[in-house]
Write a structure and sequence with these properties.
Helix content: 25-40%
Radius of gyration: 20 Å
Number of strands: 18
Shape: globular
Bound molecules: nicotinamide-adenine-dinucleotide, zinc ion
Number of domains: 2
Structural class: alpha/beta
CATH topology of the largest domain: Quinone Oxidoreductase, Chain A, domain 1
Length: 374
């Protein structure tokens, strides 16, 4: 079938993207689903900073590729052997699906499945090969998804069935921002009621983390960003205190206000500066959790003896350490009960044709989540 999609040909083009147009809207050929795959009519897809980092060239990917990894849609067709999904089912796309049999999967770490990582690195589906072509040439899949397109063919495990009551423009965020942010609180850090936490970087991921900290009963929630607008939104969503990371006295002020630092600091910005600040404001004996993805070559120097003598822990959190089939239904129920007001993170609904302008706004931190509505 013919589908319209956003193709990235070249990384590292200059901003503004409205002018350099890193994403070109093309009409592609999409093959139908093979065994173990499903065809999904995309309903909505969010613009995440990970897509932006790919466009910026900070994280190399196989090109050309149809980008987009945070989305939701409706199953249009199922391939042979897919018996637990049917046309008409609503689904959320999963950017790190699990095979169930690799070493990580059998060790209860399905978010770190290596079967899918290997396929993703090649721009293929986990079931093997590609289903997208343009003028007879193959186009890579992004995270096995490529949901900045009207339709996507994906491996069965790259989608999670959801209720039909969830609007597509909110459901989309559960595939990346919500599982990453809420999962970091609930699974990675296991925040306890009354604990004092800080969230650094208040985009879709960081604000989901903040909402997760509210649900977990954190006592104090310190929100930190370089944008005062983001700090104002964080206060509306439950932050008890806010600090601007541009203030050189920020770390000292937070340590003074918290009797030595926060129990858990969440780095959700994707910069080494934010990670250094997160570490600096973590209390002796506390945890620094990071979900931000800084440029692939970036390194952070660590005071090793301080890590030991202060009994600190640093944890990376990929897709919130989520078990998708367990956690997505839980988080959706919290959303239904208005305990996770994810709709507050949607800054705008846009058309596929506005995607380059959308990434300009994300790069300038003017927005939280913009959602392409198909
Ligand atoms: N671990 C995962 O599984 C996973 C999943 C999704 C996204 N990510 C990564 O998470 C990060 C956040 O994604 P997002 O879509 O929410 O991004 P975003 O662009 O919407 O938000 C980032 C926020 O960080 C703020 N910021 C920038 N520098 C800062 C600093 N020094 N201190 C404090 N705040 C600062 C920005 O102003 C912005 O509000 C990205 O690096 C993204 O690639 C990781
Ligand atoms: Zn993402
Ligand atoms: Zn696996």
């Amino acid at each position: 079938m013919k589908v319209k999609g956003a193709v990235l040909y070249e990384q590292g083009l200059p901003r503004p993207y409205a002018k350099s147009q890193p994403l070109k809207i093309e009409t592609l050929d999409l093959e139908g689903p093979r065994a173990g795959e499903v065809l999904v009519k995309v309903g909505a897809a969010g613009l995440c900073h990970s897509d932006l980092s790919t466009i910026e060239g900070l994280r190399p990917r196989v090109l050309p590729s149809v980008v987009g990894h945070e989305g939701a849609g409706i199953v249009a067709e199922v391939g042979a052997g897919v018996t637990d999904l049917a046309p008409g089912d609503h689904v959320v796309f999963i950017f790190a699906p699990s095979c169930g049999s690799c070493r990580q999967c059998v060790s209860q770490r399905p978010n770190l499945c290596t079967t899918y990582t290997a396929a993703k690195a090649k721009g293929d589906l986990a079931t093997g090969g590609r289903r997208l072509k343009l003028n007879g040439k193959e186009i890579a899949h992004y995270s096995g998804l490529s949901c900045f397109a009207e339709y996507a063919v994906v491996t069965r495990n790259s989608v999670q069935k959801i209720g039909k009551d969830i609007p597509m423009h909110d459901a989309a965020l559960f595939g990346c921002a919500v599982v990453t942010g809420v999962g970091a609180v609930v699974n990675t850090a296991q925040v306890k009621p009354g604990e004092c936490v800080a969230v650094l970087g208040l985009g879709g991921v960081g604000l989901s983390c903040l909402l997760g900290a509210v649900v977990a009963g954190a006592g104090r929630i310190i929100a930190i960003d370089v944008s005062d607008d983001k700090l104002a939104l964080a206060r509306q969503l439950g932050a008890t205190e806010t600090y601007n990371a541009r203030d050189p006295g920020c770390a000292e002020a937070i340590r003074a206000a918290t009797d030595g630092g926060v129990d858990i600091a969440f780095e959700m910005a994707g910069t080494i500066k934010a990670m250094e600040l997160a570490y600096a404001i973590t209390v002796r004996g506390g945890q620094t959790v990071t979900a931000g993805l800084s440029p692939i070559a970036a390194h952070m120097p660590l005071p090793q003896s301080n890590l030991v003598s202060e009994g600190r822990r640093i944890k990376g959190s990929y897709m919130g350490d989520c078990v998708i089939s367990r956690d997505v239904p839980r988080y959706l129920q919290l959303y239904r009960d208005r305990k996770l007001p994810i709709d507050r993170l949607r800054s705008a609904s846009i058309r596929l044709e506005e995607v380059n302008e959308g990434f300009d706004r994300l790069a300038e931190a003017q927005v939280v989540r913009q959602v392409i509505v198909f």
